[in-house]
Amino acid sequence: MADADRRNQTTVTEFILLGFRDLPDLKIVLFLMFLVIYVATVAGNTLIVVLVVADQHLHTPMYFFLGNLSCLETCYTSTILPRLLASLLTGDKTISFIGCFTQMYFFCALAATECCLLAAMSYDRYLAICKPLHYSALTNTRFCLHLAAGSWFNGCLVTDLFVLFMSQLIFCGPNEIDHFYCDIIPLIKLSCGDTRLIVLLNFILACVFTLPPFLLTLTSYVCIITTILRIPSITGRQKAFSTCSSHLIVVTIYYGTLMIVYLLPKRDTLSFLNKVLSLCYTVLTPLVNPLIYSLRNREVKEALSKAVSKYVAFTKTCRHS
Description:
Layout: H1 2-9, E1 14-17, H2 27-54, H3 61-90, E2 94-96, H4 97-130, H5 132-138, H6 141-166, E3 176-177, H7 184-189, H8 196-228, H9 234-263, H10 271-295, H11 298-320
Helix pairs in contact: 2-3, 2-10, 3-4, 3-10, 4-5, 4-6, 4-8, 6-8, 8-9, 9-10
């Protein structure tokens, strides 16, 4: 009888993503901006993955993790931006119940995986700079595979359990989500039932997947900077600081905005601010990660130069044949 009542209550079959409803006059501008960002993000991250796979000189632990990160960022931004672009272009803000939960699942899984992967990458850099004599022995192929696979597995497994709990919620009232994607907190607010358990679970998981990885990343970079300060060459110190500082800025923006959105108390008056902060970890970091982590590196530039040279030579051969 209770199950029948519950089925009768669950009347919502689709949701409405309100998105940037406060900026109706900027719809075309937002569409063009997000389109350029999406194309650049996918192109940049795909290029990194292709170079890492194709070039033998990039078959190292650092670039193995960077390849994983670029693959993740491509999937990450593809979970959010295509739906947002379609909404801005057509004006259709509806998304099906299943579509909404699917988007939420992939977003949560990829976000949790990225937190673990960034921590793994910072630990790899710590070993390379602070333990150079033991680096090759410690970061063997098996170790790297375990770290990467563990990051993906943990992110997906925890999200499976969380979405399973979310699917038990009853949605029988308003169906307007005040966000540009199916985010957890706005979706929970639409539930007709008791949400205290799911809110607590969300807070615990957010703490587990942001605070420990962030602290591990921060500790790794503190150790790295301490080691860099001992480098006698001023040029060497400046180069190392330039790389580490850019890495640390991106990581801080990603973790910082995640923690602000998911760990601080929620206020309806701050909904627009939450959307802006959400853009930092859903749009900004996937865009700048290829530039910060890879395209500035000498090895990647050389691999890219070789790839371009081979392509030019191939096209010349095709024209003469």
